[in-house]
Amino acid sequence: MFDMKLPLLLLLMMVLPVVGLSAKKRDTLATEKHYSKHQLAEDVKYLVATVADVHPDMYHSISKASYSRLIDSVLAGLHDGMTAKEAWPIMARLIGALNEGHSVFNYPESLVGELKAGGNLLFPVLIREFNGSEFIVRLDASAGDKLKPGDAIISINGITTEKLMGKLGGYAGGLPQYKALDICRNLIVYLHLYGVNGPWHIRYLRNNQVDSAVVNPVSWADFRSNIAARAKDLPKIKPIADHQFDFLNTDKAYLALNTLTAEPAVFKRFLDSCFTSIKNKQAKVLIIDLRKNGGGNSALAEMLLGYITDRPFRMTGGVKWKVSQEYKDQLNEKLKGEGPQTMAYYFNAINGTTISNSGDKPARPIFNDLLFKGNVLVLIGPHTFSSANMLANTIQDYKLATLVGEPSGEPANDYGELIFLKLPNTGFTFTTSTKQFIRANGNTNDQHPVMPDFMVKDNPLTPADEVLDFALAK
Protein backbone atom coordinates (compact mmCIF):
# COMPACT_ATOMS: atom_id res chain seq x y z
CA MET A 1 0.00 0.00 0.00
CA PHE A 2 1.24 3.49 -0.85
CA ASP A 3 1.84 6.25 1.69
CA MET A 4 -0.40 9.02 0.38
CA LYS A 5 0.66 11.83 2.75
CA LEU A 6 1.88 15.20 1.47
CA PRO A 7 5.70 15.31 1.35
CA LEU A 8 7.24 17.50 4.01
CA LEU A 9 9.56 19.23 1.54
CA LEU A 10 6.59 20.01 -0.72
CA LEU A 11 4.74 21.34 2.31
CA LEU A 12 7.68 23.61 3.11
CA MET A 13 7.76 24.91 -0.47
CA MET A 14 4.04 25.67 -0.21
CA VAL A 15 4.65 27.85 2.84
CA LEU A 16 5.88 30.63 0.55
CA PRO A 17 4.28 29.67 -2.75
CA VAL A 18 3.53 32.67 -4.91
CA VAL A 19 6.83 34.37 -5.57
CA GLY A 20 10.09 32.54 -6.22
CA LEU A 21 12.05 31.27 -3.27
CA SER A 22 15.24 32.31 -5.02
CA ALA A 23 14.70 35.99 -4.24
CA LYS A 24 17.98 37.66 -3.38
CA LYS A 25 18.59 38.87 0.12
CA ARG A 26 18.23 42.59 0.46
CA ASP A 27 17.99 45.34 2.97
CA THR A 28 14.24 45.63 2.75
CA LEU A 29 14.02 48.55 5.14
CA ALA A 30 16.36 50.60 2.99
CA THR A 31 14.74 49.77 -0.36
CA GLU A 32 11.07 49.40 0.55
CA LYS A 33 8.89 51.65 -1.57
CA HIS A 34 6.17 53.89 -0.17
CA TYR A 35 3.00 54.89 -1.99
CA SER A 36 0.74 57.91 -1.86
CA LYS A 37 -2.94 57.51 -1.10
CA HIS A 38 -3.67 58.74 -4.62
CA GLN A 39 -1.54 55.96 -6.14
CA LEU A 40 -3.24 53.32 -4.02
CA ALA A 41 -6.70 54.69 -4.79
CA GLU A 42 -5.92 54.63 -8.51
CA ASP A 43 -4.95 50.96 -8.18
CA VAL A 44 -8.25 50.25 -6.43
CA LYS A 45 -10.12 52.01 -9.21
CA TYR A 46 -8.23 50.01 -11.84
CA LEU A 47 -8.83 46.71 -10.04
CA VAL A 48 -12.58 47.21 -9.69
CA ALA A 49 -13.05 48.48 -13.25
CA THR A 50 -11.00 45.66 -14.75
CA VAL A 51 -12.79 42.92 -12.82
CA ALA A 52 -16.11 44.41 -13.96
CA ASP A 53 -14.85 44.33 -17.56
CA VAL A 54 -13.63 40.73 -17.61
CA HIS A 55 -15.79 38.78 -15.14
CA PRO A 56 -19.07 37.15 -16.22
CA ASP A 57 -20.74 37.85 -12.86
CA MET A 58 -18.59 39.51 -10.22
CA TYR A 59 -21.59 39.94 -7.92
CA HIS A 60 -22.56 36.27 -7.68
CA SER A 61 -21.54 36.09 -4.00
CA ILE A 62 -21.83 39.73 -2.91
CA SER A 63 -24.38 42.36 -3.90
CA LYS A 64 -23.30 45.39 -5.87
CA ALA A 65 -24.30 47.62 -2.94
CA SER A 66 -22.25 45.57 -0.47
CA TYR A 67 -19.26 45.58 -2.79
CA SER A 68 -19.56 49.36 -3.14
CA ARG A 69 -19.46 49.68 0.65
CA LEU A 70 -16.39 47.42 0.69
CA ILE A 71 -14.66 49.72 -1.82
CA ASP A 72 -15.39 52.70 0.45
CA SER A 73 -13.99 50.79 3.43
CA VAL A 74 -10.82 49.88 1.53
CA LEU A 75 -10.27 53.46 0.36
CA ALA A 76 -10.79 54.74 3.91
CA GLY A 77 -8.04 52.40 5.14
CA LEU A 78 -5.43 53.72 2.72
CA HIS A 79 -3.13 56.64 3.49
CA ASP A 80 0.03 58.35 2.26
CA GLY A 81 3.34 56.57 2.86
CA MET A 82 2.02 53.01 2.96
CA THR A 83 4.32 50.15 2.02
CA ALA A 84 3.27 47.15 -0.05
CA LYS A 85 3.11 45.06 3.11
CA GLU A 86 0.75 47.58 4.73
CA ALA A 87 -1.49 48.05 1.70
CA TRP A 88 -1.79 44.40 0.68
CA PRO A 89 -4.13 43.13 3.45
CA ILE A 90 -6.49 46.05 2.89
CA MET A 91 -6.66 45.81 -0.89
CA ALA A 92 -6.75 42.01 -0.99
CA ARG A 93 -10.28 42.09 0.41
CA LEU A 94 -11.54 43.34 -2.96
CA ILE A 95 -10.56 40.04 -4.58
CA GLY A 96 -11.48 37.91 -1.58
CA ALA A 97 -15.05 39.22 -1.72
CA LEU A 98 -15.51 37.63 -5.15
CA ASN A 99 -15.48 34.33 -3.23
CA GLU A 100 -13.79 32.16 -5.84
CA GLY A 101 -10.85 29.83 -5.47
CA HIS A 102 -9.50 31.00 -8.84
CA SER A 103 -9.56 34.70 -7.95
CA VAL A 104 -6.34 35.41 -6.05
CA PHE A 105 -4.55 38.58 -4.96
CA ASN A 106 -0.90 37.55 -5.02
CA TYR A 107 1.57 38.46 -2.28
CA PRO A 108 3.87 41.48 -2.76
CA GLU A 109 6.91 40.48 -4.83
CA SER A 110 9.32 41.63 -2.14
CA LEU A 111 7.77 39.51 0.60
CA VAL A 112 9.86 36.36 0.38
CA GLY A 113 13.08 38.36 0.25
CA GLU A 114 11.98 40.26 3.34
CA LEU A 115 11.14 37.08 5.25
CA LYS A 116 14.37 35.33 4.25
CA ALA A 117 16.68 38.28 4.88
CA GLY A 118 14.91 40.01 7.75
CA GLY A 119 16.39 38.13 10.70
CA ASN A 120 14.11 36.44 13.22
CA LEU A 121 10.67 36.99 11.67
CA LEU A 122 9.21 33.59 10.92
CA PHE A 123 6.42 31.81 12.76
CA PRO A 124 8.17 28.46 13.18
CA VAL A 125 5.24 26.04 13.37
CA LEU A 126 4.06 24.01 10.39
CA ILE A 127 0.31 23.39 10.43
CA ARG A 128 -1.16 20.19 9.08
CA GLU A 129 -4.85 21.14 9.01
CA PHE A 130 -7.67 23.18 10.53
CA ASN A 131 -10.15 20.83 12.17
CA GLY A 132 -12.96 23.37 12.44
CA SER A 133 -11.84 24.93 15.70
CA GLU A 134 -8.05 24.42 16.09
CA PHE A 135 -4.87 24.30 14.03
CA ILE A 136 -3.33 20.82 14.15
CA VAL A 137 0.47 20.96 14.48
CA ARG A 138 2.64 19.06 12.04
CA LEU A 139 6.04 20.22 13.31
CA ASP A 140 7.53 22.85 15.62
CA ALA A 141 10.71 24.29 14.08
CA SER A 142 11.43 26.71 16.92
CA ALA A 143 14.52 26.44 19.10
CA GLY A 144 12.41 25.26 22.02
CA ASP A 145 10.50 22.60 20.05
CA LYS A 146 7.65 22.93 22.56
CA LEU A 147 4.74 21.89 20.35
CA LYS A 148 4.39 18.28 19.24
CA PRO A 149 2.76 16.76 16.15
CA GLY A 150 -0.95 16.46 16.82
CA ASP A 151 -1.19 19.34 19.31
CA ALA A 152 -4.31 21.42 18.67
CA ILE A 153 -3.69 25.19 18.78
CA ILE A 154 -6.62 26.95 20.46
CA SER A 155 -5.35 30.53 20.21
CA ILE A 156 -2.36 32.63 19.12
CA ASN A 157 -1.63 35.90 20.95
CA GLY A 158 -5.07 35.77 22.54
CA ILE A 159 -6.88 35.39 19.21
CA THR A 160 -8.82 32.15 18.96
CA THR A 161 -7.97 29.99 15.99
CA GLU A 162 -11.52 30.33 14.68
CA LYS A 163 -11.33 34.14 14.77
CA LEU A 164 -7.87 34.04 13.22
CA MET A 165 -9.21 31.89 10.38
CA GLY A 166 -11.93 34.46 9.75
CA LYS A 167 -9.42 37.30 9.77
CA LEU A 168 -6.84 35.63 7.56
CA GLY A 169 -9.42 34.19 5.18
CA GLY A 170 -10.71 37.58 4.08
CA TYR A 171 -8.12 37.93 1.33
CA ALA A 172 -9.41 35.07 -0.83
CA GLY A 173 -12.60 33.30 -1.78
CA GLY A 174 -13.60 29.72 -2.27
CA LEU A 175 -15.24 27.12 -0.09
CA PRO A 176 -14.34 27.01 3.62
CA GLN A 177 -12.29 23.83 3.21
CA TYR A 178 -10.30 25.41 0.38
CA LYS A 179 -9.61 28.55 2.42
CA ALA A 180 -8.55 26.43 5.38
CA LEU A 181 -6.02 24.52 3.30
CA ASP A 182 -4.60 27.73 1.90
CA ILE A 183 -4.24 29.36 5.32
CA CYS A 184 -2.61 26.28 6.86
CA ARG A 185 -0.05 26.10 4.05
CA ASN A 186 0.73 29.81 4.22
CA LEU A 187 0.32 30.72 7.89
CA ILE A 188 3.85 32.17 8.09
CA VAL A 189 3.01 34.68 5.38
CA TYR A 190 -0.43 35.59 6.67
CA LEU A 191 0.66 36.20 10.25
CA HIS A 192 3.44 38.45 8.96
CA LEU A 193 1.18 40.42 6.61
CA TYR A 194 -1.60 40.87 9.14
CA GLY A 195 0.77 41.96 11.91
CA VAL A 196 0.29 38.99 14.24
CA ASN A 197 3.91 39.13 15.34
CA GLY A 198 6.08 37.10 17.71
CA PRO A 199 6.82 36.09 20.29
CA TRP A 200 3.62 34.09 19.93
CA HIS A 201 1.70 33.13 23.05
CA ILE A 202 0.00 29.87 22.16
CA ARG A 203 -2.70 27.94 24.01
CA TYR A 204 -3.01 24.37 22.84
CA LEU A 205 -4.68 21.08 23.58
CA ARG A 206 -2.65 17.89 24.12
CA ASN A 207 -4.16 14.63 25.30
CA ASN A 208 -7.33 16.51 26.29
CA GLN A 209 -5.33 18.86 28.54
CA VAL A 210 -5.02 22.60 27.87
CA ASP A 211 -1.51 24.04 28.14
CA SER A 212 0.36 27.11 26.93
CA ALA A 213 3.72 27.93 25.39
CA VAL A 214 5.65 30.93 24.14
CA VAL A 215 7.12 30.38 20.68
CA ASN A 216 9.83 32.77 19.51
CA PRO A 217 10.43 33.85 15.90
CA VAL A 218 13.23 32.19 13.96
CA SER A 219 15.35 33.11 10.97
CA TRP A 220 14.96 31.47 7.59
CA ALA A 221 18.24 29.57 8.04
CA ASP A 222 17.24 28.21 11.46
CA PHE A 223 13.75 27.39 10.18
CA ARG A 224 15.16 25.22 7.39
CA SER A 225 17.80 23.51 9.53
CA ASN A 226 15.36 22.74 12.36
CA ILE A 227 12.87 21.24 9.94
CA ALA A 228 15.56 19.06 8.38
CA ALA A 229 16.72 17.87 11.81
CA ARG A 230 13.21 17.04 13.06
CA ALA A 231 11.73 15.63 9.87
CA LYS A 232 13.14 12.20 10.72
CA ASP A 233 10.56 11.89 13.49
CA LEU A 234 7.65 12.39 11.08
CA PRO A 235 6.03 9.65 8.97
CA LYS A 236 8.14 9.05 5.88
CA ILE A 237 6.54 10.34 2.69
CA LYS A 238 7.15 9.38 -0.91
CA PRO A 239 7.37 12.08 -3.60
CA ILE A 240 4.19 12.66 -5.57
CA ALA A 241 4.33 11.62 -9.22
CA ASP A 242 2.02 13.16 -11.81
CA HIS A 243 0.47 9.74 -12.41
CA GLN A 244 0.84 6.44 -10.61
CA PHE A 245 -0.51 2.98 -11.42
CA ASP A 246 -0.22 -0.35 -9.64
CA PHE A 247 -2.15 -3.35 -8.38
CA LEU A 248 -2.82 -3.25 -4.65
CA ASN A 249 -3.76 -6.91 -4.66
CA THR A 250 -4.62 -9.52 -7.25
CA ASP A 251 -7.94 -8.02 -8.36
CA LYS A 252 -7.75 -4.33 -7.34
CA ALA A 253 -5.98 -1.73 -9.46
CA TYR A 254 -4.99 1.72 -8.23
CA LEU A 255 -4.65 4.75 -10.53
CA ALA A 256 -3.53 8.06 -8.97
CA LEU A 257 -4.00 11.09 -11.20
CA ASN A 258 -2.38 14.07 -9.47
CA THR A 259 -2.62 16.43 -12.43
CA LEU A 260 -4.42 16.77 -15.75
CA THR A 261 -1.66 18.70 -17.50
CA ALA A 262 -0.05 16.07 -19.76
CA GLU A 263 -0.03 16.23 -23.54
CA PRO A 264 -3.19 14.42 -24.74
CA ALA A 265 -1.27 11.88 -26.84
CA VAL A 266 1.06 11.10 -23.93
CA PHE A 267 -1.87 10.77 -21.51
CA LYS A 268 -3.69 8.42 -23.89
CA ARG A 269 -0.65 6.16 -24.16
CA PHE A 270 -0.45 6.08 -20.37
CA LEU A 271 -4.14 5.16 -20.03
CA ASP A 272 -3.85 2.52 -22.77
CA SER A 273 -0.97 0.95 -20.86
CA CYS A 274 -2.86 1.00 -17.54
CA PHE A 275 -6.11 -0.41 -18.89
CA THR A 276 -4.32 -3.05 -20.94
CA SER A 277 -2.76 -4.29 -17.69
CA ILE A 278 -6.15 -4.15 -15.98
CA LYS A 279 -7.71 -6.21 -18.78
CA ASN A 280 -4.90 -8.75 -18.88
CA LYS A 281 -4.95 -9.29 -15.10
CA GLN A 282 -8.77 -9.33 -15.02
CA ALA A 283 -9.03 -6.81 -12.19
CA LYS A 284 -12.48 -6.51 -10.66
CA VAL A 285 -12.03 -3.17 -8.86
CA LEU A 286 -10.41 0.08 -10.02
CA ILE A 287 -9.62 2.87 -7.54
CA ILE A 288 -8.98 6.27 -9.17
CA ASP A 289 -7.40 8.80 -6.80
CA LEU A 290 -8.11 12.50 -7.51
CA ARG A 291 -7.40 13.80 -3.99
CA LYS A 292 -4.25 15.69 -4.99
CA ASN A 293 -5.41 16.72 -8.46
CA GLY A 294 -5.54 20.51 -8.91
CA GLY A 295 -6.81 20.27 -12.48
CA GLY A 296 -5.47 21.07 -15.92
CA ASN A 297 -7.05 20.09 -19.23
CA SER A 298 -10.67 18.93 -19.01
CA ALA A 299 -10.18 17.04 -22.31
CA LEU A 300 -7.97 14.58 -20.39
CA ALA A 301 -10.75 14.10 -17.85
CA GLU A 302 -13.20 13.32 -20.63
CA MET A 303 -10.67 10.92 -22.15
CA LEU A 304 -10.42 9.01 -18.86
CA LEU A 305 -14.18 8.56 -18.66
CA GLY A 306 -14.08 6.73 -21.99
CA TYR A 307 -12.18 3.93 -20.22
CA ILE A 308 -14.67 3.43 -17.37
CA THR A 309 -18.12 3.99 -18.90
CA ASP A 310 -20.04 3.59 -22.14
CA ARG A 311 -23.04 5.53 -20.82
CA PRO A 312 -23.99 8.99 -22.14
CA PHE A 313 -22.54 11.97 -20.26
CA ARG A 314 -21.35 15.52 -20.73
CA MET A 315 -18.64 17.39 -18.84
CA THR A 316 -20.47 20.69 -18.51
CA GLY A 317 -23.99 22.08 -18.65
CA GLY A 318 -22.76 25.13 -20.52
CA VAL A 319 -20.59 28.21 -20.10
CA LYS A 320 -20.88 31.96 -19.92
CA TRP A 321 -17.78 33.74 -21.26
CA LYS A 322 -17.32 37.48 -20.79
CA VAL A 323 -15.84 39.27 -23.79
CA SER A 324 -13.27 41.96 -22.95
CA GLN A 325 -10.37 43.72 -24.59
CA GLU A 326 -8.16 42.77 -21.65
CA TYR A 327 -8.67 39.06 -22.25
CA LYS A 328 -8.41 39.43 -26.02
CA ASP A 329 -4.99 40.99 -25.49
CA GLN A 330 -3.89 38.14 -23.20
CA LEU A 331 -5.22 35.48 -25.57
CA ASN A 332 -3.58 37.10 -28.58
CA GLU A 333 -0.22 37.16 -26.81
CA LYS A 334 -0.62 33.51 -25.82
CA LEU A 335 -1.53 32.62 -29.41
CA LYS A 336 1.48 34.59 -30.74
CA GLY A 337 -0.61 37.14 -32.58
CA GLU A 338 -2.88 34.57 -34.22
CA GLY A 339 -5.83 35.15 -31.88
CA PRO A 340 -8.24 36.74 -34.41
CA GLN A 341 -7.61 33.88 -36.84
CA THR A 342 -7.61 31.05 -34.30
CA MET A 343 -10.57 32.21 -32.16
CA ALA A 344 -12.53 34.50 -34.44
CA TYR A 345 -15.80 33.88 -32.57
CA TYR A 346 -14.32 35.49 -29.44
CA PHE A 347 -12.26 38.24 -31.07
CA ASN A 348 -15.17 39.30 -33.30
CA ALA A 349 -17.58 39.51 -30.36
CA ILE A 350 -18.31 42.96 -28.93
CA ASN A 351 -16.47 43.82 -25.72
CA GLY A 352 -18.81 43.78 -22.73
CA THR A 353 -21.05 41.06 -24.14
CA THR A 354 -21.24 37.46 -22.93
CA ILE A 355 -20.90 34.36 -25.08
CA SER A 356 -23.25 31.72 -23.69
CA ASN A 357 -24.19 28.15 -24.49
CA SER A 358 -26.14 25.43 -22.74
CA GLY A 359 -23.61 22.70 -23.41
CA ASP A 360 -23.70 19.66 -25.64
CA LYS A 361 -26.28 16.96 -25.13
CA PRO A 362 -25.04 13.93 -23.18
CA ALA A 363 -23.35 11.51 -25.57
CA ARG A 364 -21.78 8.08 -25.36
CA PRO A 365 -18.00 7.93 -25.61
CA ILE A 366 -16.51 6.28 -28.68
CA PHE A 367 -16.07 2.51 -28.56
CA ASN A 368 -13.11 1.49 -26.42
CA ASP A 369 -11.85 -2.09 -26.49
CA LEU A 370 -10.15 -1.40 -23.12
CA LEU A 371 -13.39 -0.35 -21.39
CA PHE A 372 -13.32 -1.45 -17.74
CA LYS A 373 -16.62 -3.00 -16.66
CA GLY A 374 -15.82 -3.69 -13.03
CA ASN A 375 -16.42 -1.65 -9.87
CA VAL A 376 -14.92 1.86 -10.00
CA LEU A 377 -14.30 3.96 -6.87
CA VAL A 378 -13.04 7.53 -7.17
CA LEU A 379 -11.29 9.22 -4.23
CA ILE A 380 -11.86 12.99 -3.83
CA GLY A 381 -11.07 15.68 -1.26
CA PRO A 382 -10.50 19.40 -0.75
CA HIS A 383 -7.48 19.36 -3.10
CA THR A 384 -9.70 18.11 -5.95
CA PHE A 385 -9.95 21.30 -7.95
CA SER A 386 -10.66 22.88 -11.35
CA SER A 387 -10.79 20.29 -14.16
CA ALA A 388 -10.46 17.47 -11.62
CA ASN A 389 -13.51 18.91 -9.86
CA MET A 390 -15.33 18.95 -13.22
CA LEU A 391 -14.40 15.28 -13.66
CA ALA A 392 -15.69 14.40 -10.19
CA ASN A 393 -18.90 16.35 -10.83
CA THR A 394 -19.54 14.49 -14.09
CA ILE A 395 -19.07 11.20 -12.24
CA GLN A 396 -21.46 12.42 -9.54
CA ASP A 397 -24.20 13.79 -11.81
CA TYR A 398 -24.25 10.76 -14.13
CA LYS A 399 -23.50 8.17 -11.43
CA LEU A 400 -20.55 6.78 -13.37
CA ALA A 401 -18.65 5.53 -10.29
CA THR A 402 -18.71 5.59 -6.49
CA LEU A 403 -17.15 8.67 -4.86
CA VAL A 404 -15.24 8.22 -1.59
CA GLY A 405 -13.51 10.76 0.66
CA GLU A 406 -14.29 14.39 1.47
CA PRO A 407 -16.09 17.19 -0.42
CA SER A 408 -14.12 18.66 -3.30
CA GLY A 409 -12.35 22.02 -3.14
CA GLU A 410 -14.85 24.14 -5.07
CA PRO A 411 -18.49 24.20 -6.18
CA ALA A 412 -19.46 22.20 -9.23
CA ASN A 413 -20.88 25.45 -10.63
CA ASP A 414 -17.68 27.44 -10.71
CA TYR A 415 -15.68 30.16 -12.40
CA GLY A 416 -12.40 29.90 -14.29
CA GLU A 417 -10.55 30.64 -17.55
CA LEU A 418 -8.14 32.92 -15.73
CA ILE A 419 -6.86 36.31 -16.71
CA PHE A 420 -3.60 37.54 -15.16
CA LEU A 421 -3.54 41.23 -14.24
CA LYS A 422 -1.18 43.76 -12.68
CA LEU A 423 -1.98 47.00 -10.86
CA PRO A 424 -0.26 50.03 -12.43
CA ASN A 425 1.24 51.65 -9.32
CA THR A 426 1.95 49.01 -6.68
CA GLY A 427 2.59 46.27 -9.21
CA PHE A 428 0.40 43.87 -7.21
CA THR A 429 -0.67 40.99 -9.43
CA PHE A 430 -3.94 39.11 -9.29
CA THR A 431 -6.02 36.61 -11.20
CA THR A 432 -9.74 36.43 -11.76
CA SER A 433 -12.18 34.54 -13.95
CA THR A 434 -13.59 35.24 -17.38
CA LYS A 435 -15.88 32.19 -17.61
CA GLN A 436 -18.63 30.58 -15.60
CA PHE A 437 -18.80 26.79 -15.93
CA ILE A 438 -22.21 25.21 -15.28
CA ARG A 439 -22.25 21.78 -13.67
CA ALA A 440 -22.87 18.76 -15.87
CA ASN A 441 -26.57 18.35 -15.03
CA GLY A 442 -27.28 22.02 -15.83
CA ASN A 443 -28.50 22.96 -12.34
CA THR A 444 -27.18 26.51 -11.90
CA ASN A 445 -28.68 26.87 -8.40
CA ASP A 446 -26.57 24.20 -6.69
CA GLN A 447 -23.61 25.91 -5.00
CA HIS A 448 -22.30 22.81 -3.22
CA PRO A 449 -18.98 21.13 -3.91
CA VAL A 450 -18.89 17.62 -5.29
CA MET A 451 -20.01 15.42 -2.41
CA PRO A 452 -18.75 11.86 -1.91
CA ASP A 453 -21.13 8.91 -1.73
CA PHE A 454 -19.14 7.75 1.30
CA MET A 455 -17.72 10.45 3.56
CA VAL A 456 -14.32 9.30 4.87
CA LYS A 457 -11.73 11.64 6.39
CA ASP A 458 -8.04 10.84 6.40
CA ASN A 459 -6.17 11.27 9.68
CA PRO A 460 -3.05 13.29 8.76
CA LEU A 461 -1.24 12.24 11.92
CA THR A 462 -1.20 8.52 11.17
CA PRO A 463 0.86 6.66 8.56
CA ALA A 464 -2.31 4.92 7.35
CA ASP A 465 -4.44 6.17 4.48
CA GLU A 466 -7.94 5.81 5.87
CA VAL A 467 -9.69 6.84 2.64
CA LEU A 468 -7.80 4.34 0.49
CA ASP A 469 -8.24 1.64 3.14
CA PHE A 470 -12.01 2.22 3.07
CA ALA A 471 -12.06 1.93 -0.72
CA LEU A 472 -10.03 -1.29 -0.60
CA ALA A 473 -12.53 -2.79 1.82
CA LYS A 474 -15.53 -2.02 -0.41
From TrEMBL:
Taxonomic superkingdom: Bacteria
A cellular component annotation (GO) from this entry: outer membrane-bounded periplasmic space
Tail specific protease domain span: 253-455
GO terms classed as biological process: proteolysis; signal transduction
GO-annotated molecular function: endopeptidase activity; serine-type peptidase activity
One Pfam family linked to the record: Peptidase_S41
SUPFAM superfamilies recorded: ClpP/crotonase (SSF52096)
Annotated InterPro entries: ClpP/crotonase-like_dom_sf, Tail-specific_protease
Alphabetical UniProt keywords: Hydrolase, Protease
Name used for this protein in its record: C-terminal processing protease CtpA/Prc, contains a PDZ domain
Source organism: Mucilaginibacter gossypii
Lineage, top ranks: Bacteria, Pseudomonadati, Bacteroidota, Sphingobacteriia, Sphingobacteriales
